[in-house]
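User: Just a sanity check before I run the rest of the batch. Below are the structure tokens for the first item. I only need the designed sequence back.
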């Protein structure tokens, strides 16, 4: 009788682990680019997990139907730790930049802080902010992981 119960418990455990794995896989697969009616910014990276030292290509997309204006040529890009400590913001000229609907800007981050020191492994927040034609602030952020 003990062997029959053992087989049932092992089967239930394997099946539940398999189903939970698919659930977590579905949760991890987030779509970063969604087009909407009105003002909107999307930040897209080719993946969410990066190796330490790997270049990160960041695409800022105007995913709305109105133009977005940025105060400088860096498209309001900021990379911070999860607690808000500024790690990197690209050098930018004080030229007002506009991104038209479905327009995009590509920036590359080499995982270096503003003081040219490499970042550590961990979670980082990439954010961008601009202003729509009505004067409202439009902001978007995503989180990435940097591993060894």
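Assistant: Here's the designed sequence for the first item:
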């Amino acid at each position: 009788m003990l062997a029959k119960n053992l087989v049932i418990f092992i089967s239930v455990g394997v099946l539940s682990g398999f189903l939970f794995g698919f659930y977590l896989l579905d949760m991890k697969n987030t779509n970063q680019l969604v087009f909407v009616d009105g003002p909107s910014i999307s930040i897209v990276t080719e993946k969410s997990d990066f190796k330490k030292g790997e270049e990160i290509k960041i695409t800022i997309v105007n995913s709305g139907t109105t133009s977005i204006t940025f105060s400088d040529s860096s498209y309001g890009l900021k990379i911070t730790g999860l607690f808000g400590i500024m790690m990197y913001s690209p050098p930018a000229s004080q030229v007002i930049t506009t991104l038209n609907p479905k327009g995009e800007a590509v920036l590359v981050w080499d995982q270096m802080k503003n003081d040219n020191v490499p970042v550590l492994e961990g979670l980082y927040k990439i954010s961008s902010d601009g202003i729509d034609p009505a004067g409202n602030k439009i902001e978007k952020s995503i989180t990435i992981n940097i591993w060894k």
